[in-house]
Amino acid sequence: MSSSTDTEKTPQAAWETRRLDRVLGVVRLDQLPVAVRVGCRVEERSVGVASAVQLDGHQRLLGAWLTAPGCDDSTLWGRALGELRGRGALDAFVVSCSDRRWQPDAARTAWPLAFVDTTVVALLRSAVGLATWQDRRRVLPMLRDVVTAVDEAALGARVDAVEAAWGHRYAAVVARCRRGADGLRGLLAVDPALRQVMAASNGITHFEKDLRRAAKDTVLPGDHTSVRWLIAATGVNPQGELTSATQGWNRALNALALTQADRFCIVNG
User: Fold this and answer.
1) Segments of 146-204 assigned E as strands
2) Domain segments of the chain: what residues?
3) How far apart are CA 223 and CA 203, in angstroms?
4) Residues ≥6 apart with Cβ < 8 Å to 159
């Protein structure tokens, strides 16, 4: 493992304190292990990361946090999302996160009106972890078709199609679809255009991949500069801008405007 020695030279970035929109479109929560040097020891800690598709279609990093010594993940996420509220983000239409209990619990506490999904991230990440690089290009589009099914009949048919095509090679991916049936049915309450954005490969997912690459084989100092350096190592600009446009966002935004008209009044007011 290499040790990062220049973290103290990394200045505070605007993404750490930037005032946030009152209502966010799609928030995505991520968590990754990192190695931290504490005295003569190296400890494993976690970094929590929140990113979002804003209502203007821009994708931005909202914040990143290193777990404190002895801090559990529920404390990490409660503190993190509380900080985002303190910076102005009082509501979110959708939160897409892990199926680990502390992420959805913290999201529901911070934004009680949000649709909190724990299925999309878990399903797609399981496929990325289990499928070969060559097969991912064929498996992932089929799983995105599952996620965006228009009704329960189409959902069942698409899961069956995944099993027919890949069950012999990736039975665990199919099993994940079957185990997540309740979550997939719950997604039917969300417009397919919005689900397409939730499942897409975009600036946020590329950033998460770059973040894991930066953290690999690196030992961070256990202070507040660690996360700052880690984010800077991905090449993200100081404003936290991940991409200035989101494919299909206009359709998703129109769906939100129709189904969540009262909350849009707050946005536009």
Assistant:
1) none
2) 2-118+203-268, 120-179
3) 28
4) 146, 174, 177, 178, 181, 184
d(CA 75, CA 217): 26
Q: pLDDT of 33-48, one tens digit each?
A: 999 988 888 888 999 9
Owner of token pair 């097969």: 135
Sequence letter at residue 16:
E
Q: How far is CA 118 from the centre of its chain?
A: 10
- Tell me which amino acid residue 236 is: V
Distance of CA 228 to the CA centre of its chain: 19
Q: Give the span between the Cα atoms of 109 and 115, in whole angstroms.
A: 12
The answer to whether the Cα torsion of 154, 156, 162, 163 is positive or negative is negative
Which pLDDT tens digit goes with each residue over 130-181?
A: 999 999 999 999 999 999 999 999 999 999 999 999 999 999 999 999 999 9
pTM: 0.92
Among all chains, which residue has been given the structure tokens 């993190």? Answer: 80
